[in-house]
Request: fold
Amino acid sequence: MEFLELFLTFFMIGAVTFGGGYAMLPMIQEQVGLRWGDIITEETLVNFVAVSESTPGPFAINMATYVGSVVGGEQGGILATVFGSFCATMGVVLPSFIIILIVAKCYEKFKTNKVVKGCMTGLKPAVVGLIGGAILSVVATVFFPQGVAISVFTTVSFYVSLATFALMTVLAFKKVHPIAIIGLSAVIGIVTGYLNL
Amino acid sequence: MKFSLKRCLQVFVSFFKIGAFTFGGGYAMIPLIQKEAVEKRHWVTDEDILDIIAIAESTPGPIAINSATFVGYKAAGVLGSVCATLGVVLPSFVIILLLSFVLKQFSEFKPVVYAFNGIRAGVLALLVKALWTMYKKSPKGWAAYIVMAAAFVLTAIFDFNVIFVLIGCAVFGLVTSSIMERRAK
Reply:
């Protein structure tokens, strides 16, 4: 049952990721790769990170809706697409919804709870390490789309990607807006694509 | 009852607007929530907003959903939190659903393929920036560095399940922080 799997997978993702946004990416990468790797490649997923970043709304919701629509769409028809998105989005929303409803009643206690604080001192650095891992696999998709081989280093497209990445990293740290960064790298992609680089 | 229904509708509309006009979600949403829920509607106070951020950071799930549920609850109870959450989710749900149809049509279209070739390099840059932001917010010190390295090595190299790594790191954090506290006493 694909729809139930969508709901449960995203429920789990919503229930265990702290910090929201990109903190969810490693988990989405792992689970999508595991379950729907044949219909959603790593490359499509990275493309969709860009789409999620440049459309309004929470990143997590955008990613869930998208994965749901693709997996649901595989079942055929518009209705299945919509229902797939619905299941995934509901899944990712529900855990935090339920938890906040509980916490909202006793949040003074929650805020100063030693166990919560202690877990967070482990979870925050864990997220840093996990995103590091996610970046590693995105590096593979961006620079070595055909797999790691020495011959890659002789292709122009490798150096184009490297230069684009370097430039965009500088811009990102100069606090240029993410949408501007995505727009600019799209332009670079189109121009170099037509120049056959 | 009539009053609370009206308020629920207001909550829905406010959060629909917030969902429709913030990009990237999470912290980008906080100033807008402040404007709508504190200044305009007086559902919550500035202090509540600070609490929301603190709570959202230590509960699972998207920050946008955490804060919408919280503010909605403060404004109009459980029904209010349902309205707020639906409101904040609906715009992105509709937009992404439409986009996924469009993207499917154009996925083989040359300029789109080229554009995404460039965009993926840009996304990588954004991820590096996000890594840096998370690093700055994370606690430092030997225990934290061990956790970072372990989470990275276990998932990236040994393909460990992310959930188990997260649980392990939470337990490690709990144990080390209670040891440190005992030593401080």
Remarks:
- Strands of chain A lie at 57-58.
